[in-house]
Amino acid sequence: MSTEPICVILGAGPGIGLSVALRFASEGYRIVLMSRTAEKQDEYIHKMAGMGYEAHGLITDAADFATLTQAFKQLHTTLGPTKVLVYNAAAYRQAKPSKLSAEDLELDFRINVASALHATHQVLPSIREQGGGSIIFTGGGVAFEPMPAWASLGVGKAGLRNLTFSLHAELAPENIHVAIVSVCGMVKAGTRFDPDTIADAFWELHEQAPGKREREIEIR
């Protein structure tokens, strides 16, 4: 079993997820990509292998806690303990609050917030085992300024931000850095919301020394 630390990207898509994976891989981390389908995972793993980086893929569904638990169990059994968790999964549902059903809000909240907490529970034992590590969430501008068309996402990102701050305060004494990168704009290459720029913020948070650790970086 390799001794290089492991960074897990849960919600490994083509924008922020892939850029964060490449950023941490460039610093010597083994990457584990978690998402619902294998097709894109295989594409990303092949791309990273061509760059000399080690990456693995696990199929899981952020809305299904049982499959999420099993994925982390498989990871920790076959590859080793998680050092860094990046939670980048989100439910994007376009619906104004007057048209949003309570059932849909509940389902989206499960992915946007509850699953982030469940994933945190899965990695805490292995991070503690290593004497510390980082758990970093992807936030959004709708946590600060809600958009009616994306009401469910706004509730989720606000809840995720609040959860982050609570975890940050609780786990700091254990040398576990919990933080959030709040992206207050549309992710697009060549802008200040370039996914590579955003990935740098994730790395910056992870590298911050005890006593100087921020609970949030806002990208505006």
Order of helices and strands: EHEHEHEHEHEHE
Our estimate of the beta-strand percent is 15-25%
Average per-residue pLDDT, rounded, comes to 96
Architecture (CATH level 2) name: 3-Layer(aba) Sandwich
Name the CATH homologous superfamily: NAD(P)-binding Rossmann-like Domain
The number of E-state strands comes to 7
What is the fold named in CATH at topology level?
Answer: Rossmann fold
* Class computed from helices, strands and strand pairing: alpha/beta
Cα Rg: 16 Å
Tell me roughly what share of residues is in helical segments.
40-55%
Task: Note the main sheet.
Answer: 7 strands, parallel
In whole angstroms, the N-to-C terminal distance is: 41 Å
Number of helices: 6
Low-confidence stretches: none
State the name of the first-level CATH class: Alpha Beta
Strand line-up across the major sheet? 3-2-1-4-5-6-7
Domains, number: 1
Shape: globular
